[in-house]
Each structure stands twice: as C-alpha cells, then as structure tokens.
Amino acid sequence: MLEVSGSVSTVNAPAALGATGTGLIDIDAGGLFRATTLNSATTITNDGAISTTAGGAINGLTGTGNITVSGGTVASANGITQSSLTLSGGAIMDIATNGAASGVTKIKAINIATSGPGYVGKLELRNNDLIVDYTASTNPYATVLAMVKAGLTSLGGNGTGIGSSTVDSGPAGTRLGVVDNGAISGSIPNLSGAPAPAQSVLVKYTWLGDANLDGVVDGTDYALTDTGFGSGGNRWNIGDYNYSGTVDGTDYSLIDTGFGSQSGALPEPACVGILGVLGCGLLRRSRRRHRRA
Ligand SMILES: [Ca+2]
Ligand SMILES: [Ca+2]
Question: What is the mean pLDDT of the chain?
Fold first, then answer.
C-alpha cells in the first residue's frame, strides 16, 4: 500500500507506477501524487491531488480529490468519483463498457480547454452515464452540453470533449441525453441506479427520445415532447433530441427512431401487452399527424 498523507506531501512516482493484487494507492487530503504512468488493479482512493502524464490502466478512482491527466489514455474499469477531472494535451479518460451504477462517473467539475470547435481532451463514456454535481458551484449545463456536442461524431462533433464510441458506432437509436436536473426541480432521481443530486447536470447513454432519462421511450416521453413542441422548448428533457435549440418534426422522427430501436439490455417500454402496444402504436401515429400539421 502506498499512502500519501500530511498537509502537503508530494510524491513523484517512478516512470511507471503499478499497484497489483491487493495493493492500494491512497492519497489523503492535501497529498500530492504525480505518476508518469498510473496503473492499479484496485480502486485508487484520492482525497488530495493525483496526476499522470502518460495515462495508464486503473480499476477505478474514488474520493474527494482532483485528478489531472495531461497526456495518454487512462483506461478505467469503472466510473470515477472525484471533485474534478481535468484533461489536457489530448488526454483521454476512458470508462470501460459497463452500463451499471458502478460505471457512472460522479464529479463536481470537468475542465477541458477548448481548441477551435472542440477540446484538447476527451471523457469517453461508452455506454455509461455522467453526473456533474453543481450543488456548491456554478451551473455547468451549457459547458457540459457543448462538450457532448463536440464529443459525438454522430452529431457532427470532432470526437473531443465528452463522447461515446458506443453511440457513434453501436446500436442505432442511441444518444447521450443531457439534462439539467436543477431546471426540473431535481425530478430525475438517479441514472442507472446512481443517485442524481437535485442540482446536477446529467448525461445518460440512452435511446433517442428518452426525455426523462429513465432508460426507455414511452408515452411519458412523447407527452414531454408535445410539451416542448407547444411551448417552444429547447432542451432534451422536453423534446430537443438533436440539440438544435428547437423542437420540431426532426425531433419527432428521432423519438420514433428511439422508440422503434429500443431492445436488448435496456428494459422494455412501459406500454407492453396487447392493449399497451396498440396504445403506443396509436400514440405514434398521432405524433406523426401532429408533425405533418
Ligand atoms: Ca423515458
Ligand atoms: Ca431539435
């Protein structure tokens, strides 16, 4: 076990640092830990500051500290929990395919410098979610949304910022849904089982049209889309599924795509059974008439 403690303890680790087996890396508050390459088979606890310049492979990262990756790719088997994630120099934080609560990344700030239309780093979510808790800070919704728009190549981005290779190359009908939970009175309780603070920006890997981020597209989402269409809505949670700033026929096409695509690991839509399927079918036809109107 490597423990970095004290008010200010700085450890400049060897070129490649590894904790294997049951080995632990534990950085206490005030501790500073710098590694060129960071590897750990167990989850690192960081309540201080940790940095790497060449990436590495870790099981996960938890604690109240801050991590800076200034080069290479950190491949994490699980989501990370930290106060802040800072990426520079084209560095990538890559969360392995997971999809469960243990894959959710929970941070209070994400810092990536801009470069032209994109960023100089990337948080790769694959099929995982992200929660940015802004209870004690400025609402980062606009920044997070800009990062997602840059990150999704399927949305016209250049693959920097916050992205998902699963969305870009995986099953049709998926996208990263971005919602400011604070703008809807914290009405979304969790993402993939991870609690969502009332004041948080939520990024969920889900189906197109899943306005309320519960993982399925059903009548509730169509109703929210109608609300956005009727009120000039401009956000995902009321129907803007391509982040164009308006809810229009394109968004109705997108929710139909998501509705028709949902299958596999995600739960079936709420409207199941013969009557339910009939009801959903009628609902979809109703939406199409609405769109043509
Ligand atoms: Ca939904
Ligand atoms: Ca739109």
Answer: 89
